[in-house]
Design brief:
There is one protein chain. By secondary structure, this protein is an all-alpha fold. 73% of the residues lie in helices and 0% in strands. The protein contains 16 helices and no strands. The protein has helices at residues 32-52, 56-73, 79-94, 98-114, 121-136, 140-158, 163-178, 182-199, 205-220, 224-242, 247-262, 266-283, 289-304, 308-326, 331-347, 350-357. The radius of gyration is 22 Å and the shape is globular.
Length: 368
């Protein structure tokens, strides 16, 4: 029997770009606060420069020093301080430190609410990303509360036919997909893509994200032909526009590889999943959740082929990394543990299978 991954949805989470330019100075003669903010924005630019060069330790050191000085010069509860903190949240997310990013975003949203900026567009962007992190963490009730509020406010402030509003509709659709609320999700995806194509080019990154998400909804309903058509289109476009090793390209490559595995197209699946894993190791690092996702999916494919010696290190790596990066009770972490039960059962290592079964919640402790 071929074991299929559960409907865990990778959701193109953090969509905002880091803030790289300071706001306009408040007067013709710079005030002390203006001078302080100029210094902080210069530090921010330096940290972003290190990041763009792949000098991640120096970038993190720069962000942390910037926030320390910001606390001293402006205080934590200052609009500029929250924007700079948001850039560090962006850094943490992109480095695969999602729990840390979530904590930072919660703090930012709280501070901006206390500053009376809850309905500010920057605040809504932070809330949207927090809602998507809740979705990824399977905290669906909290996610829906936040995402519905953001959508309502963006509709009020920007109107329906605006890219940010459409992103909010798509965010809700991916939440509904994760909850198997497919009919609701499909209606919303149809709306975002229809309106999005009136506003943006067919190959615009936002349209490609919407289409990739819609393909996952189809895949999770076993509408494989429809999913394959969309994923193939997105992969070809992302390869041409972004390059083979761009994180978005690699996400679509991984998604299509999982689809091929479900269709028993083993050679095609293995080729894409191996490429995605190798590139993510180089681009994102061994411990990034996206790298762990590829390790997991390739391990599942090897297990289904009775290639247990190849599957074991891949699944162990994904379990260990997900435990650290996503929490022990995250659905993806539990899925990795469940796959290890299946691996050892298929391999005839009953004692090890039972050891791993003991790590699962009671409702998942059954023999497949």
């Amino acid at each position: 029997m071929v074991w299929l991954s559960p409907n865990i949805v990778k959701a193109d989470l953090i969509k905002y770009e880091p803030v790289s330019k300071p706001p306009q100075m408040t007067g013709s003669t710079p005030t002390p606060d203006d001078k302080h903010e100029s210094l902080l924005w210069a530090m921010n630019a330096a940290a972003l420069g290190y990041y763009s060069q792949g000098r991640y330790e120096e970038a993190e050191s720069g962000f942390r020093k910037m926030l320390e000085i910001s606390d001293i010069l402006l205080g934590e509860k200052h609009p500029t301080s929250t924007l700079l903190m948001g850039n560090f949240a962006w850094f943490c997310y992109n480095r695969g430190r999602w729990i840390e990013a979530e904590s930072l975003l919660e703090t930012i949203v709280k501070l901006r609410r206390e500053l009376g900026l809850e309905e500010d567009l920057d605040s809504l962007a932070f809330m949207a990303n927090l809602g998507m992190l809740y979705t990824e963490q399977a905290r669906y009730d909290k996610a829906e509360t936040v995402l519905v509020k953001v959508l309502e406010e963006r509709r009020r402030l920007l109107g329906e036919a605006h890219e940010a509003t459409l992103c909010s509709i798509s965010d809700l659709a991916i939440l509904y997909t994760a909850q198997d609320r497919f009919k609701e999700g499909e209606i919303l995806f149809g709306k975002t893509i229809e309106l999005g194509r009136l506003l943006l080019d067919e190959d615009h990154p936002t349209i490609l994200s919407f289409v990739n998400r819609q393909a996952l909804l189809y895949r999770n309903q076993d509408r494989n032909d429809e999913a394959e058509k969309l994923l193939t289109q997105v992969l070809d476009t992302r390869r041409n526009k972004l390059g083979e090793d761009d994180p978005e390209t690699l996400q679509t490559m991984n998604d299509l590889g999982v689809l091929y595995a479900r269709q028993d197209r083993v050679s095609d699946a293995e080729s894409l999943l191996t490429k995605a894993l190798e590139a993510r190791r180089i681009k994102l690092g061994e411990e990034h959740p996206d790298t762990l996702e590829s390790s997991h999916e390739l391990g599942v494919l090897c297990t289904n082929q009775s290639r247990y010696e190849e599957a074991e290190p891949l699944l162990l790596k994904s379990f260990e990394g997900r435990t650290e990066r996503l929490r022990a009770n995250h659905p993806a972490t539990l899925d990795s543990a469940d796959r290890l039960v299946q691996l050892y059962e298929g391999w005839g290592k009953t004692e090890k299978a039972e050891q791993w079964r003991a790590k699962l919640p009671d409702e998942k402790r059954f023999k497949q």
